Amino acid sequence: MAALPKRIIKETERLVADPVPGINATPHEDNLRYFDVTIHGPASSPYEEGIFRLELFLPEDYPMSPPKIRFLTKIYHPNIDKLGRICLDVLKTNWSPALQIRTILLSIQALLGAPNPEDPLANDVAQRWKEDEKAAIETAREWTRTHATV
Amino acid sequence: MSDDDFMSDEDFNDESLEETDSEFEDETYDDDRYLKYDKPQRKSYEVEFRVYSDSQIQKAQAEQIEEVSNILGLPSEQCAVLMRHFKWQKERLIEQYLNSQEEVLGAAGLDTNAARTLKIEKVKGFMCDICCNDENGLETFALRCDHRYCVECYTVYLEQKIKEEGESGRIQCPCEGCSTLVDSKAIKLLAPKSVSDRYQVLLNRTYVDDKDNLRWCPAPNCEYAVDCAIGPKQLTTIVPTVVCSCGHHFCFGCGLNDHQPCPCALVKKWIKKCEDDSETANWISANTKECPKCLATIEKNGGCNHMTCRKCKHEFCWVCMGPWSEHGTSWYNCNRFEEKAGVDARDHQAKSRASLERYLHYYNRYANHEQSAKLDKDLYLKTEKKMTLLQSQSGMSWIEVQYLDSASKVLQQCRQTLKWTYAFAFYLERNNLTHIFEDNQKDLEMAVETLSELFERPVEQLASLKVEMMDKTAYVNNRRIILLDDTAKGLLEDKWNFTVDLN
């Protein structure tokens, strides 16, 4: 593999030296473009007290293209599907090379705090979210307890 | 029949002479930018259009931008951004700009701080947020929003946007959430020539895409655009076929190949139906029968003729379709063809098959002409060869054998028309008008087949057939005109009753 770009080195250093509260990203020793990520569910959301594991990969042309991110922990959320893929504008069309791993992970944390059933990825979840929000939130809480607590 | 033809021929000419309202428009467009002028007299199925070349489109844009630039007193690259933002509606732009300058500039992604000129600079102590490079003497660039990045990152960013994503008029500053647009001056400054050329091409396209009265010629590698005033709402009453300077005939409404006389809405429905149904319908028709009781479609994949429907448990005979109970002991050997129950069952089945057969009737004829159209290319090559051969055999000149070429062209055009008459007919409700249409269709088809047959004769005979072929060619062309004129007028006057809604 080609030498790691300065940008990735700097970002990694900063992630370690000055971590974001509730978010942890550590690169693999054998592949510095591959990160293990954990995100704490935001307070007063159904994901509160859950710790969600994600994987993050920086493609060859990062930061011109966005990082590839996926939830590894099962989660009940209208914008996250069964495979853990995330529907988030900044990961797709609204990506900007000035965005960073840190900002993207913060956006994902914010998405947990504010689900958007109007722009769903998991249709069944979004449907339920719209029809019976209370029950949907309860399921999300239940899933958090079963899958996202150690 | 031929008397009748004569009559309608004259009728038609009279009527087309009356149609003079198009000339008024012609004069207002007296401009050397246009490549092609309409024939002064339009037939009822023809529409008015112009063909523009790439450079004419660029010139037209530049002129409009220049004009606005003079009025608003802004640099032309900013005016270009504004014009694109307003989809080239000059008056609206000027009006709104004069009302609230700042708002308009902001909404279009321009910064009001226009005083500073954009240039590549070296800034002390700068670190690029994209590559994290902080070497001394790093060349940097920022738009008016002052989000500064190194030139290398900027260039890669623009290349990605232009070459990979095909963007042009809406490329924003790389900073997240910043909506300042990258204008053509910045592109020229930063991007290599191949990228800025591509940018120009893409930008040119947005002009055509933004304007409802312009459309690119869909032929491969053709760079002309066609200007035609027919809007989407008129498509139920007219089929706007236009001819590009590259020779491609296409519909201005939907961009598909010429599909006169069939309106766009029917074409869309028909193509979808054909994609969905044709093969399936053919297979069903060839391989299955329906249960006489519940009409479930059944494929017999082996075994005896004593069928028991899986769905309704009805027992019947596969051969005569009558109930099995009447078959007594003559199993596997149905000889009860005349029995009433069996006849009824077959009647019933015949009815349910009728609609399928109706569709297949039209589809097969449509597909047949489509197949012929696919052979067009061969036909053309064959024509050329025949023309050369004929010259050497009969001592005729190149000009004298041109009748073969015109015959082949007319043949191709008529097959295209015929093809779509079948889609048109499929959706047509039967009434007296349908008879006229079908007669026209039949006449055209017969004429086409006769000409086609003449065309296929051995080369030795062709020289002596010259007059006959020229006559036939003219006749076939006339039949086509009559058919198209009849259908186009019907559409315009809303005379046709279709089995589906056109809107």
From TrEMBL, chain A:
GO terms for molecular function: ATP binding; ubiquitin conjugating enzyme activity. Gene3D superfamilies: Ubiquitin Conjugating Enzyme. It comes from Terfezia boudieri ATCC MYA-4762. It comes from the Eukaryota. CDD domains: UBCc_UBE2N (cd23813). Its EC number is 2.3.2.23. The keyword Nucleotide-binding applies. Belongs to the ubiquitin-conjugating enzyme family. Keywords: ATP-binding, Nucleotide-binding, Transferase, Ubl conjugation pathway. The active site is at C87. Residues 3-149 form the UBC core domain. Pfam families: UQ_con (PF00179). InterPro entries: UBC (IPR000608), UBQ-conjugating_AS (IPR023313), UBQ-conjugating_enzyme/RWD (IPR016135). The keyword Magnesium does not apply. PROSITE patterns: UBC_1 (PS00183), UBC_2 (PS50127). This is E2 ubiquitin-conjugating enzyme.
Automatic annotation (TrEMBL), chain B:
SMART domains: IBR. One of its GO terms (molecular function) is zinc ion binding. Residues 124-338, 128-174 form the RING-type domain. The keyword Protein transport does not apply. PROSITE patterns: TRIAD (PS51873), ZF_RING_1 (PS00518), ZF_RING_2 (PS50089). Pfam families: Ariadne, IBR, IBR_1, UBA_ARI1. It catalyses: [E2 ubiquitin-conjugating enzyme]-S-ubiquitinyl-L-cysteine + [acceptor protein]-L-lysine = [E2 ubiquitin-conjugating enzyme]-L-cysteine + [acceptor protein]-N(6)-ubiquitinyl-L-lysine. Residues 1-32 are annotated as: Disordered. Residues 1-30 have a biased composition (Acidic residues). Its EC number is 2.3.2.31. One of its GO terms (biological process) is protein ubiquitination. Keywords: Metal-binding, Repeat, Transferase, Ubl conjugation pathway, Zinc, Zinc-finger. CDD domains: BRcat_RBR_ANKIB1, Rcat_RBR_HHARI-like, RING-HC_RBR_HEL2-like. The keyword DNA damage does not apply. PANTHER family: RBR FAMILY RING FINGER AND IBR DOMAIN-CONTAINING. This is RBR-type E3 ubiquitin transferase. It comes from Terfezia boudieri ATCC MYA-4762.
